[in-house]
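[09:14] KT: can someone run the structure on this one? pasting the chain below
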Amino acid sequence: MIRLKEGVELRPEVLKKAVRDAGFTPTWMRLKVVGRLIKNDGGWAIRVKKQEFVLTDGEKLKDVAGREIVVEGELAGDGRTIKVEGVSPH
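[09:31] RB: done, C-alpha cells below
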C-alpha cells in the first residue's frame, strides 16, 4: 500500500513506472480517496483537490452530491476512472 501525503497529486503513470522499474508488473491499482462528489460533463465524479476522477455507477451516488465522501475502488487503465466498490461518508 502506498499512502500519499495530503495535497500530493495522484499520478498513476508515475506509480506504475516506479513499480515496473522495481522489476514488477502492475496489473491494477486500488484506490481509497476522500473528496467531494460532483456532477461534471462526463457524469458523476469525485473531486480531490485539483483532480477529478469519473466514477462508474456514479448515478447511484447522486443522493450524496456535494458532500465529502470516501470512495474505494479500482482505477481503470485510463488513470481517470474509478470502478466504485464502496462509498462511505467522510
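[09:33] KT: thanks! The first strand starts at residue 29 and ends at 40.
[09:34] RB: yep, looked fine to me
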